[in-house]
């Protein structure tokens, strides 16, 4: 919830700019949060109480520029307002601070470890996640959790986020045809959730296996029918032989 001393009359999302018009420095700033959102769209397909936004401005005061993270997650909000969707995220309209914010560090450093950390801390964002694949001596992924008003760095990869019910981590994989380290969601046991393409591939494999089992069962049934035909022919042959010897096969004691 918000604790800001706001003006009495506030603009709506439609009256505020929907972009800071600052271009991204690297495709990864769109692809990494895009993958996280794509996975959520499958995991939470039936839920309508969440929003994962990419490069969307968060307005916390009408007279100040928005904060524009690479991605953020809010829980307990309407998934959709209408078919036009949200142009921006206005805190005095939503009345919910994002629970998770992601910054992807590019070649052009944008104060992710200093100014932005202080901003999200002051805003009350529970989890501030920074990803930088360029780091050599430190972990690529940092998960900061707000504890008593201050961020504390969480250990591990992945890191379990109990308030969200998901873990966040990174590992090598393939997305959009690019094999590299990507960020993923994980379950509580540390198992990675599949990407949409992996889920489709898994479903295709399952369908192929079911078709193969059905074909094998049909082959077994056909073989059983053939064996039954052979056995029936053998019975008829034996019956003819008995009749040739003057024995009625239907009256055998």
Describe the structure.
The protein has helices at 28-43, 91-94, 115-123, 196-244; strands at residues 50-54, 58-59, 71-75, 89-90, 100-104, 127-131, 141-147, 150-154, 159-161, 166-175, 178-186. It is of the alpha+beta class. The protein has a 6-stranded mixed beta sheet with strand order 1-3-5-6-7-8, with helices on both faces. A hairpin with a 2-residue loop joins β10 and β11.
DSSP strand content:
15-25%
Q: What is the overall number of helices?
A: 4
Instruction: Give the neighbour order of strands across the main sheet.
Output: 1-3-5-6-7-8
User: How many beta-strand elements?
Assistant: 11
Principal-axes geometry comes out as elongated
**Spans where pLDDT lies below 50 across 5 or more residues:** none
Cα-atom radius of gyration = 31 Å
Query: Overall pLDDT, averaged?
Result: 86
Secondary-structure map:
Layout: H1 28-43, E1 50-54, E2 58-59, E3 71-75, E4 89-90, H2 91-94, E5 100-104, H3 115-123, E6 127-131, E7 141-147, E8 150-154, E9 159-161, E10 166-175, E11 178-186, H4 196-244
Parallel strand pairs: 2-4, 5-6
Antiparallel strand pairs: 1-3, 3-5, 6-7, 7-8, 9-10, 10-11
Keywords:
253 residues; alpha+beta; 3-stranded antiparallel beta sheet; 6-stranded mixed beta sheet
What's this entry about, in short?
The chain is α+β, with helices and mostly antiparallel strands and 253 residues long.
């Amino acid at each position: 919830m918000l604790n800001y001393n706001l003006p009495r009359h506030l603009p709506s999302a439609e009256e505020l700019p929907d972009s800071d018009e600052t271009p991204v420095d690297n495709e990864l700033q769109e692809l990494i949060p895009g993958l996280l959102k794509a996975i959520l769209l499958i995991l939470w397909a039936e839920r309508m109480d969440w929003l994962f936004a990419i490069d969307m401005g968060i307005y916390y005061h009408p007279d100040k520029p928005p904060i524009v993270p690479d991605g953020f997650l809010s829980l307990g909000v309407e998934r959709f307002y209408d078919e036009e969707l949200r142009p921006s995220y206005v805190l005095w309209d939503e009345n919910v601070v994002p629970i998770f914010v992601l910054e992807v560090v590019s070649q052009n450093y944008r104060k992710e470890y200093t100014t932005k950390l202080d901003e999200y801390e002051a805003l009350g964002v529970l989890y501030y996640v920074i990803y930088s694949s360029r780091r050599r001596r430190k972990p690529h992924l940092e998960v900061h959790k707000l504890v008593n008003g201050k961020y504390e760095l969480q250990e591990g990869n992945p890191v379990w986020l109990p308030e969200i019910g998901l873990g966040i981590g990174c590992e090598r994989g393939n997305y959009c045809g690019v094999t590299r380290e990507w960020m993923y969601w994980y379950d509580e046991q540390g198992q990675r959730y599949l990407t949409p393409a992996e889920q489709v591939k898994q479903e295709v494999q399952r369908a192929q296996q079911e078709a193969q089992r059905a074909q094998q069962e049909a082959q077994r049934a056909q073989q059983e029918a053939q064996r039954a035909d052979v056995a029936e022919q053998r019975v008829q042959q034996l019956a003819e032989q008995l009749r040739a010897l003057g024995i009625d096969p239907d009256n055998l004691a």
